[in-house]
Amino acid sequence: MTTLLKSATIIDASSPYHKQTKDILITDGVITQIDNSITLKEPHEAVKLDNLHVSTGWFDTSVSFGEPGYEERETIKHGLLVAAKSGFTSVAVNANTNPIIDNKAAVEFLINKANGFATNLYPIAALTQQSKGIEMSEMYDMQQSGAIAFGDHKKPIENDNLLKIALLYTQNFNGLVLSFPKNNQIAGEGVANEGVNSTRLGLKGTPALAEEMQISRDLFLLEYTSGKLHIPTISTEKSTELIREAKKKGLDVTCSVAIHNLFLTDDELYGFDGNKKVDPPLRTSKDIKALLKGLKDGTIDIITSDHNPIDIEHKKVEFSTAKDGTIGLESAFGVLNSVLDLETISKCLSENPKNRFGIKNNSIQKSELANLTLFTPSFKYTFEKENIISTSKNSIFMNKELNGKVYGIYNNNQLILNS
């Protein structure tokens, strides 16, 4: 298979062609030539797209599909197609299935189901058996089968000693521990950010303190154990400061932020739309400002869509009883390109997550495997239902003005383009 990308602006700080517009020739999945202009006589597929930009393939570190157990929300097969058409060449899939991904056979099931697709799937296995937070799962065996990290999705590790032991144990095989930042005792039955808006709307509030206390505890345990920790989806100004200080101490900690927490505030809740109910909740404009600063100065390492399909029966209900979660793959780039520069987006969607989760990051240069995301940053549109490819339609970004369009990906010797 020979593919020629015409007039592509390269966004890859590790490439000698960074910010240059070049033709890129790919033969049997490998970049064989990069030049100002390439002309071929032999049969090939030429890709000519308006204002084409190319970056190293994006990797989303927090994606939920549904299979096994919740196939009505999303299957692996269709979910990987959604990811590809949203610009992601790799996704880390959470363990929140039925049954939970907490054993070797379950990890191997996910990997086998994803074999042969353009988008790579990497399982995040449960840290504890059935994600109940009581006994540790067999993490070493699962890593040997292909799990890249361990965490109980959206469930905090309440037992302090359990987290301590996990951080110690995983050092034997360089395992990465994920700890969801939420203190359930402080959060209580909160369904929205505790503040002016939750009070006006009569919604039970979840204070920022619930997140920040948990992060403080996690960082104390990390300092004690010298382990390897990733904190997913932080959402507050103070959380950013805590992690900034921990990094200054030299602790081996990284964190991510969900895209919707960079774009929307709790002002969105006045319509009581269940699609706006997420965990952590939408916070304030002050928090968004701090999170964006944290991304730019390197405090926050990773951006995730936190894609979580939920069927309509669990979303089109009273706000307080709606399940948490939003789909986010399709809207990811259009949102990020509205608030961040392309280099920061590329770094936080590609280089940083791949380095942290132990996945090879292929540079855009000759003789490298082609692992590419194709997009244009100059495309303004209103995100509507017709833009959703996912089986479930629970998007928090419905009717929002976005900027930027994904054309598709090239990965595993496959070119996937949006029609």
Task: Describe the overall structure.
It is a single chain. This protein has helices at 76-85, 104-113, 139-145, 160-169, 184-187, 196-201, 208-225, 237-248, 285-296, 332-339, 342-357; strands at 2-11, 21-27, 30-35, 45-47, 53-56, 58-63, 88-93, 120-125, 149-150, 177-178, 192-193, 205-206, 229-231, 253-258, 302-304, 372-382, 401-411, 414-417. The protein is α/β, with parallel strands linked by helices. The strands form four sheets. Strands 1, 2, 3, 4, 5, 16, 17 and 18 form an eight-stranded mixed beta sheet that branches. The protein has two domains: 2-53 and 366-390 and 401-417, Urease, subunit C, domain 1, CATH 2.30.40.10; 57-357, Alpha-Beta Barrel (TIM Barrel). It starts with a strand and ends with a strand.
Provide keyphrases for this structure:
419 residues; Urease, subunit C, domain 1; TIM Barrel; 2 domains; 8-stranded mixed sheet; 4-stranded parallel sheet
- Contiguous helical run count: 11
Oligomer: single chain
Helix content class: 25-40%
| CATH homologous superfamily assignment of the largest domain | Metal-dependent hydrolases
CATH topology tier name of the largest domain? TIM Barrel
Query: What ranges have pLDDT less than 50 throughout 5 or more consecutive residues?
Result: none
CATH architecture of the largest domain: Alpha-Beta Barrel
Major sheet characteristics: 8 strands, mixed
Number of beta strands: 18
Termini Cα gap: 20 Å
Q: Structural class, please?
A: alpha/beta
Q: Please report which band the strand proportion falls in: under 5%, 5-15%, 15-25%, 25-35%, 35-45% or over 45%.
A: 15-25%
* CATH class designation of the largest domain: Alpha Beta
SSE series: EEEEEEHEHEHEHEHEHEHEHEHEHHEEE
How many structural domains in the coordinates?
A: 2
Q: What is the 3D form?
A: globular
Computed Rg: 21 Å
Query: What is the typical, i.e. mean, pLDDT?
Result: 97
